């Protein structure tokens, strides 16, 4: 059974940084691309970023380009999202998902950007 | 960027009703479309992939159809547990884009 467990969310001031983690199990992590999707309070789903299975290719929404960076550690079956220069509009629940077609999802981690 | 226009944004239906939700892509995406169900406070769950393939474990009352630019999700007989918000997602190209969502309320 695929399991994805996000962590690392919390309260951060505008301009600050945060690193999210997504621990994967139940499948061969190194074989699959992975994605991050977010959902602002009361709003719809927004794709944020994807990373290829090797980590050599990354893709970004315009809203986070230059500020967010996905990475992965296949020795630990873990996906990361480094978030810099955070803004109030980045406040959301962040989900990791398998593939770039979002097959399986974690439970999400809340990021709040506020002073 | 491909825009996904989902309609209606909300609907109210009775248990047993047939419900149809539509997503329209701003350009052709072949069948690279998924449908998701999200209940309050929970992560989305994929129901349909490749426009019409049922995800394992999903009840057969859910079905998807379409190709190119027009897609539909149909719930053949609405059940109380189907109260949720539904989203489409195109994964034909980057950036990936979701529809705006359809909130299904039970009458």
- Helix/strand/pairing category of chain A: mainly beta
Point out poorly predicted stretches of chain B.
none
Number of strands of chain B: 11
Count of individual beta strands of chain A:
10
Inertia-based shape of chain A: globular
Mean pLDDT of chain B: 97
Distance between the termini of chain A: 40 Å
How is the biggest beta sheet of chain B arranged? 7 strands, mixed
Structure description:
The complex is a heterodimer of chains A (115) and B (107). Chain A has 115 residues and is mainly beta. Chain A is 0% helix and 49% strand. Chain A is built from no helices and 10 strands. In chain A, strands 2-10-9-4-5-6 form a 6-stranded mixed beta sheet, with no helix packed on it. In chain A, strands 1-3-8-7 form a 4-stranded antiparallel beta sheet, with no helix packed on it. In chain A, a hairpin with a 5-residue loop joins β4 and β5. The model of chain A has no long low-confidence stretch (mean pLDDT 97). In chain B, strands 2, 4, 5, 6, 9, 10 and 11 form a 7-stranded mixed beta sheet that branches. With 107 residues, chain B is mainly β.
Which descriptors apply to this entry?
heterodimer; A: 115 residues; mainly beta; 6-stranded mixed sheet; globular; B: 107 residues; 7-stranded mixed sheet; 4-stranded antiparallel sheet; 0% helix
In short:
Chain A is mainly β and 115 residues long. Chain A has no helices and ten strands. The mean pLDDT of chain A is 97.
Secondary structure elements and their pairing?
The complex is a heterodimer of chains A (115) and B (107).
Chain A: E1 3-7, E2 10-12, E3 18-25, E4 34-39, E5 45-51, E6 58-60, E7 68-73, E8 78-83, E9 92-98, E10 109-113
Parallel strand pairs in A: 2-10
Antiparallel strand pairs in A: 1-3, 3-8, 4-5, 4-9, 5-6, 7-8, 9-10
Chain B: E1 4-7, E2 10-13, E3 19-25, E4 33-38, E5 45-49, E6 53-54, E7 62-67, E8 70-75, E9 84-90, E10 97-98, E11 102-106
Parallel strand pairs in B: 2-11
Antiparallel strand pairs in B: 1-3, 3-8, 4-5, 4-9, 5-6, 7-8, 9-10, 9-11
């Amino acid at each position: 059974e695929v399991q994805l467990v996000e962590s690392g969310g919390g309260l951060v001031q505008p301009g600050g940084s945060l690193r999210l983690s997504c621990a994967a199990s139940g499948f061969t992590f190194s074989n699959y691309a992975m994605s991050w999707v977010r959902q602002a309070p009361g709003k719809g789903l927004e794709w944020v970023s994807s990373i290829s299975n090797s980590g050599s290719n990354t893709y970004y929404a315009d809203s986070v380009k230059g500020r967010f960076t996905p990475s992965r550690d296949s020795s630990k079956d873990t996906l990361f999202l480094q978030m810099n220069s955070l803004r109030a509009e980045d406040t959301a629940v962040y989900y990791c998902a398998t593939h770039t077609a979002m097959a399986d999802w974690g439970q999400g981690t809340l990021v709040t950007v506020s002073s | 960027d491909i825009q996904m226009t989902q309609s209606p944004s909300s609907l109210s239906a009775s248990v047993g009703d047939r419900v149809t939700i539509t997503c329209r892509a701003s350009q052709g995406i072949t069948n690279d479309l998924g449908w998701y169900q999200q209940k309050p406070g929970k992560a989305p769950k994929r129901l349909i992939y490749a426009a019409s393939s049922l995800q394992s474990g999903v009840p057969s009352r859910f079905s998807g159809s379409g190709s190119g630019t027009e897609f539909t999700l149909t719930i053949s007989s609405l059940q109380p547990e189907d109260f949720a918000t539904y989203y489409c997602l195109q994964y034909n190209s980057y950036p990936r884009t979701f529809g705006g969502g359809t909130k299904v309320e039970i009458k």
